[in-house]
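[PROTEIN RECORD]
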Amino acid sequence: MSIFNLGRSQFYAEPGLIAVVVEDLPAFLEAAERHPRSLVVLRADAPASSVELRRYCLALGGVLQFEDSGEVRSVKYDPSIPNSTAMSLNALPLHTDGSFLERPPARFMLSFSAKDPDARGVSTFMPIARILAAAPAWVLEALLTADYLFVRSYDGDLTDSYVGPVLYRNDSALRIRWRSDDIWRPKVVEPRGTDAEGAVDWLHDFLCNSQAFTYAAEAGETLLVPNTVMLHGRTSLSPDSSREVLRVWVA
């Protein structure tokens, strides 16, 4: 990894990934505007509250609320919630947020309130460019053309689900929606003459077997993630982990 400074920002660069790290809110907002496809990190002495996180989001254009739990969601280990990869101790596979929405949030924020006591739960990232560069032509054709079912929940309720391609264009840029784990994979609705199921299997295997980029966030850091051009996940947590993250979608 290469590290270099430019003005008030510090850049962490690996092939296919640039993380911009800043230490004050004006620099954070400026970096967000200048680097919309990069991971942007705001370092602070204390974790941002839900009120502060919402204000950051408004400064970037607004808050996208969909869940009944509110605009800012707390994500932490909770054994009382079944069929939730985010609330479990298991590793969270690479995915995009809001895949069940017609227009998933282009970006979202994660504010780290508490770290895992054993330094586990490290954030993982996979830029769309890595996928596009590795995928065979038949996979790209299927992911661009076929219609897949993306569900909001795993309980069989198809309310608020979405049917469409994995890869799509928005604002002249190619973007991705994805969620695939041991509970659910996108189901083929209309293959449109492609090997749509084989393409899902290829992408699932590629993400499971490829080396993801990692970022070990500290408590007090806020990450701005470009959701539709960079998949994200985390490594597994320690038993009874205290890791807690606040998440909010940017409109």
Helices lie at 25-34, 50-59, 128-134, 137-145, 196-209. The chain has one domain: 2-250. The first helix runs from residue 25 to 34. Residues 2-250 form a domain with the Double-stranded beta-helix fold (CATH 3.60.130.10).
